[in-house]
Structure formats: C-alpha cells, structure tokens
Amino acid sequence: MNFTSGKQLLDICSEKNISISQAMFLRETTYLEQDSVEVTQKMERAYDIMKQSIHRALNEDLIGMGGMIGGESKHLDALRKSGKNICGTLISKAITYAVGVLEVNASMGLIVAAPTAGLHFTPEVLADIDARGIGREEVTLHVGAGTFKPVKSDTIEGHEMHTEFISVRRSSIERIKSNLGNIIAVGTTSVRTLESLYYMGVILDNNPEATSEDLVVKQWMPYDTNNNRLTAERSLQNILNYLDKHDADTLVTATQIIIAPGYEFKIVKGIVTNFHQPKSTLLLLISAFVKGNWKSIYEYALEHDFRFLSYGDSSLLL
Questions:
Q1: 11 and 17 in contact (C-beta within 8 Å)?
Q2: CA 28/CA 310 separation, integer angstroms
Q3: β-sheet bridge partners, residue 166
C-alpha cells in the first residue's frame, strides 16, 4: 500500500476504516518493505521516549536549550541519549510532555508543532479537573507549517489558508453534541477542529453521500449565509449518521477553515489559548472570538509582563 498525497491517505483510511498511523505503518511494511518488527519497535521507541520525558519532567531539573519545534525523530533521540532534556528557556515542566508527543509526531512526518496551549495542563491540573467532574475529550488536527505563515496581503481575502488533517472519535462527537453550550477548546488547533465539524455536518446535510474528500471544509465556506442555517445539534447528528452508515468509529478528513472577524462560532463557547504574534491567522481567530476586542486584552498582557507565543502565558476567553 502506498500514497503520495494527503487525498490518497484520507481515501485509504476511509476505505479501510483505519487510522492515519495504521496507514503509515502499512505503507512502511508493504510498499517500503520494512520489517514489521522493526517498524513496531520504532513506534514503541517513540512512545517510550514520550513516557521518559514525562517522568523526567516530574522528577528532574530541566536543561534549557531554547525552543525546538519539529525535526526528525533521530535528532530528538540523540539529544535524549546524550542526557540532555529538550525544552524552551521559559517553560514549565509540562514542555517535556510535548517533546515526547513531538517525537512520535516527527517519526510519522506529519506534524510540525507541539500543542502549546495544552502545555499548561500538567498531570496535576488534569487530575484536579477530573476530580471536579469536568469532562474532557481529545481531538486531533495535524498542524501544518501554514499555521505560522504570516498574513502578508492587504486584506484577509488575499490570504490562502493551509489544509490540515483532522481526526475525531465518534464518542467525542457524541459527547460534544450532548454538551453544546459548555464547550471550552484548549488551543486554536482545537477551535479549528471543533468549528470545522459544524460545516462538515452542513456538507452532509446537502449531500448525505459525501466522501471524506467531499467533507473537507473550504476556506471561505463559513462566510456563506446558506452554510449557517443548521443548528449545531443537527449538524453533529449528520456526522454521527455518516459514521453509522460507514460503520466507522472515527471521522477522518481535512479542513482549510479560516476563522476571522465576522465568523459566527457554532460549537466553541470558550478558549484557553496563549498570546499570539501580530499579522497571524491565530490572532485573527482570537479577534473573531472576542469580537474585535483583542487590543485591550493584549495591552493588559504587555503592561503586566505576560510572556507571549508558544511557550508563554495563557488566557481563558469566554
């Protein structure tokens, strides 16, 4: 089995009802004729590095080495074996968890950034959340390099958004549907994923026979009034019906959504996010959520010496 494009990868996952990681495993063992044991060991080694990173974060002092995003897994492994830990200079111990995740991601060759808003959620914080009876779910969006592409055009319309793979479990969609009005997204990545679900449901409402390729949310789809007529509950139910029809437990497709001022949020009611750089699509998303009131928020952060960007401080926007 082989694939040379994101479309082919999605088609294979949909046809065989397998995950992206499983598809890549099959590619290495069949088309590339790699030994299945060696491939399995490679994956297990990546996850082992992640576990070791967590352990070291909880029990050892960290060595700051500046930030590291992306890169090949062998480089991360070499640094680990040298006894050095990988983290930014102004980061909490949670960063090593992301490095572990990044190691797995890098070995798959698909993702270029750590889930930075999630770095604030240490095991202790997550345990406290669970103890309070607050439900949480995980969604996946394969962050592309386009996330960091600055908006250079004079108008938003001149900026071309990147396409990113997403994967959401059926159980997560069911839980989201049951808790509409109370959904807090951790990170802009989660926001894009959750809001894309609504428009995928709209596509299915118009075309119940849509394929995974048809479900890809185009950049400007949310700004057509004809695409905003459904309730979020009905839209998510359309996705559940689609999964039932295809006997699938996970929705795997892609999105090109851009969230900018004028966007109407359908699912997300709150956002935990860091402070972003100017002229970025991430700041456009924040401006859309706070209805243009981002300047006063950022001025407050600057006046009180908040740390910005990926490994900085966070905010809760409601």
A1: no
A2: 33
A3: 141, 253
**214-260 confidence digits (pLDDT tens):** 999 999 999 999 999 999 999 999 999 999 999 999 998 888 998 99
30-36 contact pairs (CB < 8 A, 24+)? 30/1, 30/2, 31/1, 31/2
Burial 200-234 (b: 16+ CB within 10 A, else e): bbbbbbeeeebebeebbbbbebbeeeebeebebee
Q: DSSP assignment, residue 217? A: B
Whether the per-residue pLDDT at 59 is higher than 90: the answer is: no
Q: What pLDDT is recorded for position 139?
A: 84
Q: pTM for the whole thing?
A: 0.66
Q: Which among 192, 193, 205, 191 has a CA at the least distance from the CA of 240?
A: 205
How would you class 115 by CB atoms within 10 Å of its CB: exposed for 0-12, middle for 13-18, buried for 19 or more?
buried
d(CA 164, CA 104): 18
CB count within 10 Å of CB 60 equals 11
Tell me the C-alpha distance between 71 and 86, whole Å.
Answer: 12
> Considering the chain, what is the average pLDDT of its residues?
73
Q: Report how far residue 126's alpha carbon sits from residue 271's, in angstroms, rounded to the nearest whole number.
A: 16
Angle at 71 between CA 69 and CA 76, to 5 degrees: 95
E strands, the chain, are 140-141, 164-169, 184-186, 250-255, 270-274, 314-317
Q: Is the pLDDT of residue 144 over 50?
A: yes
d(CA 84, CA 134) in angstroms, rounded, equals: 36
Q: Closest Cα to residue 18, out of 212, 316, 249, 306?
A: 249
Rounded Cα–Cα distance for residues 97 and 152 (Å): 33
16, 18, 53, 165 from 22: Cα distances, Å: 10, 6, 24, 15
Coil vs helix vs strand at 257: coil
What gap in Å lies between CA 173 and CA 83, rounded to an integer? 41
